[in-house]
Amino acid sequence: MISGHHVREAKEMANGIDLTRTMAPTSVNFSHYLKEALEAISEPTMAKTLLRHHRYLGNELDRKAAAQWTARRLGYAPDLSQIVVSGGTQSALLVILASLVGSGGVLTTEEITYPAVKPICDLLGIQLVGTRIDEEGLTAEGLESVCKSHRPRALYCNPTVHNPTTAIMSNARRREIADIARRYQVTIVEDDVQSLLLADAPRPIAAIAPDITWYLMSLAKTISIGLRVAHVVAPSPDDMRRVLAPISSLSSWFVSPLSAEIATSWLSSGRADVILEEIRKEISNRQKIAKSLLSDTHHRTQPFALHVWIPLALHIDLQQVNDALLARGVRVQTSTMFTLDKARIEPAIRVSLGRPLLTSELEQGLRSVATVVREAR
Ligand SMILES: Cc1ncc(COP(=O)(O)O)c(C=O)c1O
Question: CATH classification of 54-269 is 3.40.640.10, yes or no?
Fold first, then answer.
């Protein structure tokens, strides 16, 4: 007899092996916790309130929970008037960048960056200029040079487990970047999405330079991408008011009340800690698998990171590597997608460890990656 597990395994494998999205592994508690939360919110008075109103900025309880959650990284609980709970990082970025940079303005970011930034800038008429990176992420010289040549109004950066290279910026570099931003009056927008998975990540730039930094911490990688909840901390209540004033009734970036209610109850009750711990445990297990199967493949990652970055020799044809992987039914992301200057693409692939539901699928995918990269040398 074929067990449910084997049927699911066969189905997953038949669709090929998807190592594209840097998703967190799933939690065995999701179903139970969700049932519990939905039961609580279907109580008649609660249901009426939730289903008849917007949750503009998140309510006070949402923002209190956000203050406690972000304090784990910031080292202090931000004032509630500095916090917005939004419907994900990307909707927050749209609003913040529209206000901080605006049409015709310049935003700088790592020269290899989170691919969502480019379409957001295109939509807003913002010019996006890449800053040089090294193994720590943004370089101080690179940022200073862009500040002199392009006068950016803001810097979007991802200094802790950078997507895609997994770089973690040192404390010293964080201070240098903050100093340069201050000197050239550049507002920093820091995306700290994977940081809570790490045991000892350096404090965010927002903790070094809170007065010039917008801090974004989505729950997408640490709790659940499906909730679509991101916490936003403004440099000050005044900054928050300035950004919000012209768009106070624009609902497209509001958090969904149902999601906010679930997120806040999980954050306040400790359910979120259980989920986070489960994700950390599973990703640590997957990191061990990656370490063993990619032992002969030059790669970069961090303990608890959801993905691996595999830089390839410059002579290697990235398209051929991708095609060879596809022929084996394995999908990854190539550096083309992350590189801003399409004339300067250095061949590399990003491999997600969290995406497959089954570790057997991950193992098969990583074996193919190791073989294809070896054969491409
Ligand atoms: C760098 C980075 N920031 C943020 C997110 C999460 O975005 P959102 O909160 O819109 O789901 C992701 C997920 O893909 C990401 O890679």
Answer: yes
Contact 142, 133 (CB under 8 A): yes
Q: Can you count the helices (H) and strands (E) in the chain?
A: 14, 14
CATH match of 4-28+272-376 with 3.30.1140.32: no
Instruction: Tell me, using a 6 A CB cutoff, whether residue 161 lines ligand 1.
Output: no
List, as own/partner pairs, every contact residues 325-331 make where C-beta atoms lie below 8 angstroms and the sequence separation is at least 24, other chains included. Answer: 325/349, 325/368, 325/369, 325/372, 328/368, 328/371, 328/372, 329/16, 329/17, 329/368, 330/16, 330/17, 330/19, 330/365, 330/368, 330/369, 330/372, 331/16, 331/17, 331/18, 331/19, 331/20
Spell out where the chain has E strands: 17-18, 83-86, 106-110, 127-131, 133-134, 137-138, 154-157, 187-191, 213-218, 230-233, 307-311, 330-331, 333-334, 348-352
Residues in CB range of 322: below 8 A, 6 or more apart: 332, 334, 349
Task: State which residues of the chain have pLDDT below 50.
Answer: 1-3
Whether ligand 1 lies within 6 angstroms of the CB of 225 is answered as: yes
Residue 151 CA to residue 266 CA, distance in Å, equals 42
Residues 191-248 pLDDT 10s = 999 999 998 999 999 999 999 999 999 999 999 999 999 999 999 999 999 999 988 8
Rounded Cα gap, residues 377 and 374, in angstroms: 6
Query: Is the beta carbon of 115 within 6 A of some atom in ligand 1?
Result: no
Do 54-269 and 4-28+272-376 fall under one CATH topology? no
Write a three-state SS string for 228-285: CCEEEECCCHHHHHHHHHHHCCCHHHECCHHHHHHHHHHHHHCHHHHHHHHHHHHHHH
Position in ligand 1 atom list of the atom nearest CA 93: 10
Nearest atom, ligand 1, residue 88 CA: 9
State pTM to two decimals. 0.94
Domain boundaries, the chain: 4-28+272-376, 54-269
**Is the shortest distance between the CB of 214 and ligand 1 below 6 Å?**
no
CA 97, CA 180: separation in Å to the nearest integer? 20
165: exposed, middle or buried (Cβ count in 10 Å: 0-12, 13-18, 19+)? buried
